[in-house]
Structures are given as C-alpha cells and as structure tokens.
Design goal:
Helices cover about 40% and strands about 20% of the residues. The structure holds S-adenosylmethionine (SAM). The site of S-adenosylmethionine (SAM) has 23 residues, from helix 1.
C-alpha cells in the first residue's frame, strides 16, 4: 500500500474538515472567480474548498488520494445538489488521465503539499492548467509559531521515528525558495509566482480546544501515528499535554468554544 495514501485513509479527515468550512469558503470567495470556469481541487478532502467553488458556478473536479474522502466528497456534492462537482481518486504526483491544459484554475489547500514528490506535483499542477490560468496553493509554514497545524505536526513528528532517507517534509511547501525552485523546474519564472501570508481559522462553537485535540488524536492520520508511536514509548500523555497546551494557547475564544487562527502561505502562480 502507498504509505501516502494509507496515512490519509487511516483516520477520517472529514472530522477535521468540519472545523475548516468557514475559512474554506472565505478562501474561495477571495479568488474572485467568475463562471464559466473549470477548476481542479487537488488534495480536496471532502470538499472544504471544492463545494464553495461549485456553489459559485464553477465546474469542479476534486482529486484526492484517499478513497474514503472521495466517497465523502461525492456524498456532500449530491446532498448539495451540485451536479457540476465530482470527486475522484488520484495522486498529485502523477495526474495520469488528466489532459494538459484542462483547467482554468488548479487549487490545492493544504492538499498537494502532502504529496511525497514536490517537483512532480508542481509539474503536474502546471501541466493540467491552461496558459492564462492560475495555480493557487494554501501551505502551512514551517517553524511559524502562529501556524497552528505546522506546530501540531512539529510536535507530532517529534514523537515519531526518524523519517526515511529521501523524505521531503511537506512543510518545505511553506518556504519561498523551495516554491520558486519547484515552479521554475516546471517552467514558470519566479516573476509569475506570488506569495502572501493569510489566516485560516479552525472553528467550532461546540468543541473546546481539548475536544479539538481529541479529534486530531482520533481522526487525523499524522497525529494518530504520533500517538501510536508515543504509546509504545510510554509518552502518549506527554504528547497529549503538548498538543493541548498548543491548542489552548492559540485559541482565541473565551466562552469554552474553539477559534484557532492559523497562518498559512497563499501561493498564486499565473501561467
Ligand atoms: C489536510 S487535508 C486537506 C483537505 C482539503 N483540501 C481541505 O482543506 O479540507 C490533506 C488532503 O490531501 C490529500 N492528499 C495527500 N496526499 C495526496 C496526494 N499525493 N495526492 C492527492 N491528494 C493527496 C489527503 O488525502 C487529504 O485529503
């Protein structure tokens, strides 16, 4: 089994995505799209951004490596009556079966950054987007204290065994020099790559930060793996404590609910 696929099929990301809907909609609104538009949402999960894109009138294909999320996405599309939105299984490293220049917009919000071959990912995103179109990515930023998920992943990975040789951290997609290098190898000059920091919020009116940490522990593949490794080493309590402190420190709600802002890098590539 492909470990990248296994990681994301392990849990149930829909439980985390439920905290991200509001920012997903805001992200899409800020793209200023006008229909008709053909869009690809890569690493789309169950449609945090694909659903609002389709609601704005775009024809949307969501591609994700996790079969369970593709099923969940198609269910959401059907429930919302969005016949112009379909989800299918695929790997951002190799979008075989997707023709060159198929899309006006290729979007990937905290999705393609998790694919293991970043140079191939950049090449594929550029290949399937038409000249004059856009590639837009949302990427977590490494070592940024205000980038909640990046901190959560950093803590989680400190409880995991060392990564195999050749492993490229997904966090490198939050570093300007890597981004420029990857897109320039895909044939895009750096003048066409724009980056801006923005905020994505994890919101739940009825979950405390502790509940949110429990959701990551129960449903989010990378955190589930970290807890399994920590359990073996008798360190699960330590991991839980560190994640809880992080979530509590970053929570801005004062009524027991959760509102955690998280800085990310929005990358726009104009083709
Ligand atoms: C953090 S989730 C984000 C999901 C969605 N974009 C959202 O914002 O709700 C990462 C997603 O990327 C997908 N993913 C990871 N590696 C991938 C790959 N190589 N190709 C396609 N999707 C991938 C995962 O299955 C998962 O749905």
């Amino acid at each position: 089994m492909n470990p990248n696929k296994a990681l994301w099929e392990k849990g149930d990301f829909t439980e985390i995505a439920a905290l991200m809907r509001q920012s997903g909609e805001a992200f899409v609104k800020a793209l200023g799209i006008t229909a008709p538009l053909r869009a690809l949402d890569l690493g789309c999960g169950d449609g945090t951004t694909a659903v609002p894109l389709a609601q704005l009138g775009a024809e949307v294909v969501g591609i994700d490596i996790a079969q369970n999320l593709v099923v969940a996405g198609n269910k959401r599309a059907a429930e919302a009556g969005l016949s112009q939105l379909t989800f299918q299984e695929g790997d951002a490293c190799n979008l075989h079966g997707v023709s060159d220049d198929s899309f006006d917009l290729t979007l990937s919000v905290f999705g393609a950054m998790f694919a293991p071959k970043p140079f191939d990912v950049a090449k594929e995103m550029v290949r399937v987007t038409r000249p004059g179109g856009r590639v837009v990515m949302g990427n977590w930023i490494p070592n940024d204290p205000t980038s909640f998920v990046s901190q959560l992943l950093k803590i989680s990975s400190s409880f995991l065994p060392p990564t195999p040789e050749g492993f490229v951290s997904p966090m490198t997609w939050g570093v300007e020099t890597h981004i420029i290098e990857r897109f320039s190898q895909a044939g895009v000059p750096k003048e066409k790559v724009f980056m801006v920091r923005d905020t994505f919020s994890f919101l739940s009116p009825d979950k405390s930060p502790g509940d949110v940490v429990d959701s990551f522990r129960q449903f989010y593949g990378p955190t589930m793996n970290a807890f399994e490794a920590a359990q073996k080493d008798g360190k699960a309590e330590d991991l839980h404590h560190q994640l809880l402190e992080l979530a509590k420190a970053q929570n801005q709600a004062t009524d027991g609910s959760t509102s955690i802002p998280a800085t990310y890098l929005r990358v726009t590539v104009c083709l």
